[in-house]
Amino acid sequence: MASRRRLRPWKDVTHDGLQTVHVVPVNDLRAHRERGTSCWCDPKLERLDRGVLVTHNSMDGRELIEKFGLM
Ligand SMILES: [Zn+2]
How many other CB atoms sit within 10 Å of the CB of residue 60? Predict the structure, then answer.
């Protein structure tokens, strides 16, 4: 099954020298902000050794489909 997300290692370095890595839903209904750690979708933030993993939430709710198998 094809992944509905893409991993985008972003060369965005924050003021304290950390990189942010974004996981963004592909072809979502609304564009996500792939700089910094804030976005309209209230992304989940996870601290990595050298940065922050920013997992964005889709506008169309596909995470619920992936999580609960709803179609
Ligand atoms: Zn987002």
Answer: 13
